[in-house]
Amino acid sequence: MEIKGSRFTLRTWQAADAPSLQKHANNPNITACLLDRFPSPYTLADAEFFINLNLHQDPVTNFAIEINGEVAGVIGLDFRDDVYIKSPLIGYWLSEQYWGRGIIPEAVKLVTGYGFKKLDIICIMAFVFSTNPKSMRVLEKAGYTQQAVLKQSVIKNGKVLDEHVYVAYRNI
């Protein structure tokens, strides 16, 4: 499966993606804004493990961001259990060399549209650390609205941070 962007392709995973995934993911500037479950350093074994988890998804909810023939990032919907079953979280990261080019806002719009068209969901949510205003701007450009700020609710790299909650509804 592929979704074409203007300068990139969102596509399903292939085992051969591991080296480029590892190369672009192994960056402390990326891990600084992600959950601690994201490995750092990011090894080839981490890349292979992640790809194997996502190889045979049905429906597809996690996409490789391919730029110039290699995986330069990831975007996906993370489905949760219980009362959150129809309110997935969107998550993404992009290789630092492609920051500031409008790729992620476009990718967020594409995945959001795909989610509302193809999946049985009521909203898509995102949680952003207060230290990541660029990601907040990405979400705003993609039509998400800030719903709340959870004061002093997370710890990242030993610092207590606020977490900003963004939501998109079917009508975007």
From TrEMBL:
Pfam families with a match to the protein in the record: Acetyltransf_3 (PF13302)
Residue ranges occupied by any N-acetyltransferase domain in the UniProt entry: 21-172
Residue ranges crossing the lipid bilayer per the database entry: none
Superkingdom of this protein's organism: Bacteria
Listed name of the protein: GNAT family N-acetyltransferase
